[in-house]
Amino acid sequence: MNLRSRKRICSWILLILCPLLLICGCGSGKDNSGSQFDAGSYSQSETATENDSMEAGEAEGTGAEEASGEDPGEKTEKTEETAAKSEPEINTEMLIYTCTLKIDTLDYETSVNTFRQMLHNAGGFVEKEKYSDGLSNQEYYIEDSEKTKSYKATVRVPQNQYETFLSGAGQLGDVRSKESNVENVNQEYSDLGTSLGIYEAKEKRYLKMLADITDDNHAISIEKELTELQIKIAQIKTRMKEIKTDVSYSTINLTIREVGKYEETPEKTDTFMQRLGATIKDTFKTFLLFMETLLFFIIRISPYAVIILLILLLVLFLQKRSKMKSSKKEDTTNIE
Questions:
Q1: What is the pLDDT of residues 34-81, one digit of tens each?
Q2: pLDDT band at residue 159 under the 50/70/90 scheme
Q3: Rounded to two decimals, what is the model's pTM?
Q4: Cα–chain-centroid distance for residue 172?
Q5: Rounded to an integer, what distance in angstroms lies between the CA atom of residue 321 and that of residue 317?
Q6: Burial class of residue 295 (count of CB atoms within 10 Å of its CB; 0-12, 13-18, 19+)
Q7: In the 8-state DSSP scheme, what is residue 262?
Q8: Quick check: 252 pLDDT over 60?
Q9: Beta partners for residue 177, in sequence order
Q10: 71 Cβ partners below 8 Å, 6+ apart?
């Protein structure tokens, strides 16, 4: 094949491929342009819709505020006031008051009698009391002047008389210490009431089930659960009753102690002659005490001294006799 033939074949191949390449290029261009247009139009339409809705909402809000004549600042203040009102408040009707008082007095009987009269006037009662004279462990009679009496009591007074009763405690004597405590049991009482309602509703269901049950074994199991449930209900009611009593009657732990009056004695300075006389007197007393002690000592050891003296005399006598015998033997030997 010559060169001219080869050129013709290449020309025909190019003529065939060019239309195909043009067709493919136009198709891809149309697809890309279509996708770009569709995406752009969708995003633009969506953005426009969102903007329109936001503008409409703002317009409606503005129109409503203008129509109502409210200021946005006033609306914020009202919202804060509503939130403050919605916060839970302390229920002052479920507070338990407790106080511990320690009082010293010079007139024990008067203070105790005054305390009992105050308790009677307040409408309270004694829950527990204890009396002590300070020498209860002694087993012999003690005069009243030597006793240090004390009175301890736990009393209950109505809550509305609690502050009045404490304010009058100063007339009982010298208030040495006072400790008050307030406990809020509103939450506990509310929880107990909720639990009680649930248990009582459950009790009614068990009673209804028990009336319809014909199987003995099933009935026994229901009765067992019902008994446990009724025990819980009784415990809750007891606790709620205790809380009501503690709330209605405040507790006061009182101690009244009898004390003596402190009297300061003035300092006394002795003169020289007084100190000299006191020294001579003390010396003479000391000498007499020494002589007395010595006399008692001699009396105590005299029996033992007599025995010791007799033993010594006996030993001396034996020694002397032994010497005499030995000297006689020596004289006899010299004569011989």
A1: 333 343 333 343 343 344 444 434 444 444 444 444 454 454 455 445
A2: very high
A3: 0.51
A4: 30
A5: 6
A6: exposed
A7: P
A8: yes
A9: 102
A10: 65
